[in-house]
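Repro case for the chain-ordering regression, as requested:
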Amino acid sequence: AQTVTQSQPEMSVQEAETVTLSCTYDTSESDYYLFWYKQPPSRQMILVIRQEAYKQQNATENRFSVNFQKAAKSFSLKISDSQLGDAAMYFCAYRRRTGANSKLTFGKGITLSVRP
Amino acid sequence: GAGVSQTPSNKVTEKGKYVELRCDPISGHTALYWYRQSLGQGPEFLIYFQGTGAADDSGLPNDRFFAVRPEGSVSTLKIQRTERGDSAVYLCASSSTSGAGEQFFGPGTRLTVL
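-- result from build under test --
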């Protein structure tokens, strides 16, 4: 079975600074997707960024980028130029690639606060 | 609206009662998922539909939980003889079968069992 571990329950960052959220996972499969989701107090899960395991290049989306280390099974999220609106819970998630669709396996999440 | 919708937004019930939670996916999305999120935890998978059939129901915790999707669109999650431990946010997501199959989530239903 696949597992996703987020060991930091909380983090805080100063507005305009950079923060890195950590995630490790365990799987015996070689082809899969990794995701970071943001969940504000409204409960709506929002996809932040996606990484395909077969791609060596790290994904980037504007201020968000990942450091994907496949051999180490590590998948961290870097948020640059942090904004007040970035404050939320962030979840790392895994999904196997084989098959048309499959379930997401989530970590426990990390609460990010942004100090003005 | 173009997103996934869920009703009700909040549901309070008494222990032992029956509840139904509804999910309306994005139009045209053939895959539909239910997850349960307990306080302070990440969402946990319950069941996945491909069209009208349950393709994977391995996450349903016991036989008090049941879900249907009779016409391949709207889905209903049904919980019988509710227990206090069923209190959680129930999230629904839908996806198409193309590309990476990104799952789009609804706002969830917060279920409180007294």
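Ordering looks correct now. The two ends of chain A are 41 Å apart (CA to CA).
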